[in-house]
Amino acid sequence: MKRLLALGIVFLPWKIKRWALRRFWGYQIADSARIGLSYIFPGELVMGEGASIGHLNVAIHLRRLDCGAHSIIDRSNWITGHPPSGRHFRHRTGRDPSLLLGAHAAITKSHIIDCTDKIEIGAFTTVAGYASQFITHGIDVVTNRQDCKPIRIGAYCIVGTRVTVLGGATLPDRSILGAASTLNKAHVEDCAVYAGSPAVQVKRLDPEAAYFHRPTGFVD
Question: At how many degrees (to 10) do helices 14-25 and 2-10 cross?
């Protein structure tokens, strides 16, 4: 019954939808935040001032979706996970199926984001382009069971189009992940370009670059 109610709420005018999401789901949605024609029903939803989720997005089976102030999830993104009460991953006792999006961060269009474990995308970071995949789970052939690891994307980063980011990976602050790259491990050196499959550091970046110091997320 609640799923049918949720589907109906998707099509309501925003002010009525916001009231219903606050009243019946207990979501914390700032007055200036907004959700378009999208099916967004995590366990917990927090949307800061000016945060927006566009049309044709799906976000389900998450413990928490946290959209920082003025963050953007544009359109046609599939964001899902494996709920904490699910039958798999019980050996991962600290697993957190959540997406945490920092202030002024942006996820553009048509990406697949698997939050079986936590994905953090830092403030002022842009997940750019189209058709990237963030995959936190897979099969461990040694133990013959499904396993998962979190992903962390730092602050003031650019994630290029059509990349693959795997569980356990980290992109340090003020870094770029090149288009079509595969990030499969935790890197530590910030202000760098990482590219290739698997991605390796290919260039250093000037820490004074304007992108790393902009006061708002939008880039002219």
Answer: 150
Q: Flag whether the pTM goes above 0.70.
A: yes
Mind listing the pLDDT tens digit for each residue in 3-59? Answer: 778 888 999 999 999 999 999 999 999 999 999 999 999 999 999 999 999 999 999
In CATH, the number for domain 27-213 is: 2.160.10.10
Instruction: Name the residue among 209, 210, 201 with its Cα closest to residue 183.
Output: 201
Q: The tokens of 71 are what?
A: 């963050």
Long-range contacts of 28-34 (CB under 8 A, 24+ apart): 30/69, 33/67
CA 207, distance to chain mean position in Å, is 25
Annotated domain spans of the chain: 27-213
8 Å CB contact between 24 and 52 = no
> How does pLDDT run across 52-65, given as a tens digit for each residue?
999 999 999 999 99
* Sign of the CA dihedral with 29 first, then 31, 35, and 37 last: positive
At 76, list the tokens.
């046609």
